[in-house]
Design a protein that fits this description.
- The radius of gyration is 18 Å and the shape is globular.
- It starts with 13 loop residues before the first helix and ends in a 10-residue tail after the last helix.
- Strand 3 and strand 4 form a beta hairpin.
- The N terminus is likely disordered.
- By secondary structure, it is of the alpha/beta class.
- Helix 2 runs parallel beside helix 3.
Length: 191
Amino acid sequence: PSHDTHTQRQRSNWRFWLKHDTKKLLTILQDHDGVIPQPPYKYVALLNPPLDYVVNTLKSTKNGNLYIDIETDFISKDMRCFAFSFGPDAEGRVEVLIVPFLDIHYEPAYGMAGNAKILAALAIAMRDNCTVAHNGAQFDFFVFAHKYHLPIGRHVYDTMIAQHRIYPEVEKSLGHCVSMWTYEPYHKSEA
């Protein structure tokens, strides 16, 4: 199982994680003949997709889950980029769009008008879908509302709050949740 090296596990929780990781290892050995199960989906990442594709995808998807994560500047909370997906399609393909918002010179990645179109389309997507984010209530949703004046929508799901309700005593970082619930490697260790 993967481990989050950036957010260390508390010593008081080592027993929990040892028990959980051992159970996961035994499941791999017994139920999967020693082979780590592969995800049921095929992930396709689109880096820096065309503006029209981003806007149309956000506007046209309704009544689903909008999975979203943002990356911001530490001090100003300016959104540098965000990634989103609406989950798997009928063939089990998950398209993840990684959208730059500011370039390396802190200029709008799609120009002022393009970035405005993206924010408008994002507001529509959040209105028409359930917005799912890890630590959304304390960070992502706050940045959207306070910094960009986006209405969050009536349907939101925060995976960090969900993790806290299930296991209130253990760490809740995204890396810990990925380690607990999937067989995927630690998400920040990928090239």
